[in-house]
Specification:
- This protein has one domain.
- It has 5 helices and no strands.
- The N terminus is likely disordered.
- By secondary structure, the chain is an all-alpha fold.
- The protein is about 65% helix and about 0% strand.
- Helix 4 packs across helix 5.
């Protein structure tokens, strides 16, 4: 795509399209409003602090083990879900005139899929390593 990363990271009104704005807009806040990144940050924090670790804990309990390898394997599922839901989240957010990211944001940057996948693998490995389940 010839528009490049710089164009993809900003909407047509000059507002940065970061994860917080994207989540907030997908949840119904106007995409260019000040409320979108605030709502997105709150929901993103809840997902990252409560929901994701809880889902990893369930995976560790189901697997009857918690270690870096098990966490990395759970991270593969997390990465796939994150990368594949991105286009739908972006479409729901309503950023007209802004290039779509595609799965794993590959249309925004050739390195974005690597970052999405690697960050979830490292996150899962760390949770698996640090998890003390009951």
């Amino acid at each position: 795509m010839s528009t490049g990363v710089a164009a993809a990271l900003w909407d047509d009104a000059g507002a940065a399209i970061g994860p917080s704005r994207l989540i907030g807009a997908a949840l119904g806040a106007p995409p260019r409003s000040a409320a979108a990144p605030v709502l997105g940050a709150i929901v993103g924090a809840a997902l990252g602090i409560l929901a994701a670790p809880a889902l990893y804990a369930i995976a560790f309990q189901v697997a009857h083990r918690a270690d870096a390898l098990t966490g990395t394997l759970a991270g593969i599922v997390h990465a796939a879900a994150s990368g594949l839901v991105l286009p739908a989240l972006f479409a729901r957010a309503g950023f007209e005139g802004t290039p779509r990211p595609g799965a794993f944001a590959r249309l925004w940057s050739p390195i974005a899929p690597f970052g999405i996948i690697l960050s979830r693998l490292v996150y899962g490995a760390l949770l698996g390593y640090l998890y003390v389940g009951g």
